[in-house]
Amino acid sequence: MLSTIMAFVSETAPEAAAKSGSVISRMLINIHEWSQLEPIAFLIKLGGGLLIVLIGKVLIIWLKKVFKRSLSRSKKINDLMARFLLQLVNIVGWIFLIIIFLQHMGLNMGPVLAGLGISGVILGFAFQETIGNLLSGVMIVMNSPFRIGDYIDAGSYSGTVKDMDMICVILATPDNKKITMSNRLVWGSPIINYSDLERRRVDMIVSVPHGSDVATVRQVISSVFASYEEILPEPAPTIEVSKLNSSSVDFIARPWTIPSNYWKIYWRFQAEIPTRLAEVGISIPFQQVDLHIVDSTKEIEAPKSNGAEKG
Questions:
Q1: Which of 209, 235, 240, 248 is deepest in the core (most CB within 10 A)?
Q2: Over the stretch 90-141, which tens digit does the pLDDT of each residue have?
Q3: Hey, which bits of the chain come out as E strands?
Q4: 3-state secondary structure of 6
Q5: Cα torsion at 18, 22, 27, 33 (round to 10°)?
Q6: 3-class SS at 200?
Q7: pLDDT digits (tens, 9 = 90+) for 27-41
Q8: pLDDT for position 299
Q9: Contact 147, 79 (CB under 8 A)
Q10: Contacts of 13 by beta carbon, 8 Å cutoff, 6+ apart
Q11: pLDDT at site 146
């Protein structure tokens, strides 16, 4: 069977090579040369090439382990950058390995690489989205706007960064959804990182009815904050009157905490503040409308004339 296939290639390759371009021509000529070999000799040559691939694969794995150890010791390279560089090493290593294999099989890679340089322009237009994602990934890695495990906003999406490769970023939302975004989309949008800094301010609003004592409201909010161990002493929490609405007076309550405790404080405060205000006689206001009804049954008295009526 193998001899039949090689005989067919030996008959068709020279004719096809004469009609095709230089790169394809050279490849067909090499296929024609392979077809002239005896099956045993061809299998031996192919076995040697596969052995080279096996050895190269082992070297690539070893090289990745060496790089991984070196990157883990560096304080300037985070996990995201390390993963990206390891993927890059893996891809570049396999490209060189394929070139070496084809060179071993007798294919002159010089003209082939030169031809790929010309066709690369065409491929660049065809795969511009993929190339854009790759370059955007490089920019993300170089600037390091986030790390694995950070909670971010990227465009209209929010979530915890779970992974990143050379094409996309994977986010996990708080409601357990997986979002896959292209690197180009992430880098082309404002990136808000909620986990990168050491502390974060919790912004909350407390509404009380008009006429409530401002000092009492401040004291209640301050006592609630004092009972939370998660709130940082510095900077001190901000408690001030923010806005006078039609039905309420709004206070801003802004304590500081570490990013991981943000929602813990937010939800706890929202549940406790109505009860604590009620203990001092302050209720939570609600929208209300005062309706004044005019009695239309009363006759409107006509204005009296100052002059005497003529008979």
A1: 248
A2: 888 888 888 787 777 766 666 655 555 555 555 555 556 777 887 888 888 8
A3: 151-154, 157-164, 168-172, 178-182, 191-193, 200-201, 204-208, 238-244, 249-254, 256-257
A4: helix
A5: 50
A6: strand
A7: 555 555 555 556 676
A8: 55
A9: yes
A10: 28, 29, 31, 32, 35
A11: 87
What's at 147, amino acid-wise? R
Q: Which residue has the higher pLDDT, 29 or 4?
A: 29
* Runs of H (alpha helix) within 144-205: 183-187
Q: What is the pLDDT of residues 41-55, one digit of tens each?
A: 667 777 877 888 888
Instruction: Please state whether beta strands 191-193 and 151-154 pair in parallel, antiparallel, or not at all (unpaired).
Output: antiparallel
The residues, any chain, with a CB within 8 Å of residue 200's CB and separated by 6 or more, are 194, 256, 257, 258, 259, 262
Q: How far apart are CA 170 and CA 36, in angstroms?
A: 51
CA 288 to CA 207: how far, in whole Å? 14
d(CA 215, CA 6): 95
Q: Which domains does the chain carry?
A: 2-132 (no CATH), 138-193 (2.30.30.60), 200-279 (3.30.70.100)
Give dist(CA 26, CA 164) in Å, integer. Answer: 39
CA distances from 292 to 67, 98, 246, 295, 305 (A): 80, 88, 17, 10, 32
Instruction: Tell me how many degrees the CA angle 81-260-190 measures, rounded to the nearest 5.
Output: 50
